[in-house]
Recover the amino acids of this structure.
């Protein structure tokens, strides 16, 4: 079981077998700010039908845009990391107007520390 309490100045995370007395206290003290999660009910998202369906729809262009934004770099900055690729080329790759070459996919996998298949389109 996991009990999570979040208030502006307090964050409490308790894992494991939580005594009923402590749970009662937390529920009484924090009312709406407490969330009780039964870890036995948690699901591995990668094993769900929803994830499998979404994964099929994500393109290499989507992955490029997602990883670039996660790493908080601009298209211009990414172009420089790729060895001087113009910003417009990065934009075109992100929108699917320009395909991502194998050579570029390998560089992207190194930059973002992910597998190269994230940037390769499989037909």
């Amino acid at each position: 079981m996991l009990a999570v309490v979040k208030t502006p100045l307090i964050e409490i995370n308790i894992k494991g077998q939580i005594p009923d007395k402590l749970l009662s206290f937390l529920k009484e003290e924090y009312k709406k700010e407490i969330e009780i999660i039964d870890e036995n009910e948690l699901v591995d998202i990668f094993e769900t039908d929803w994830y499998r369906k979404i994964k099929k729809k994500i393109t290499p262009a989507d992955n490029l845009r997602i990883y670039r934004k996660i790493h908080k770099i601009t298209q211009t900055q990414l172009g420089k990391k790729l060895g001087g690729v113009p910003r417009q080329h990065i934009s075109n790759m992100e929108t699917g107007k320009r395909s991502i070459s194998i050579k570029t996919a390998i560089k992207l996998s190194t930059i973002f520390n992910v597998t190269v298949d994230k940037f390769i389109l499989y037909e």
Remarks:
- The longest helix spans residues 20-30.
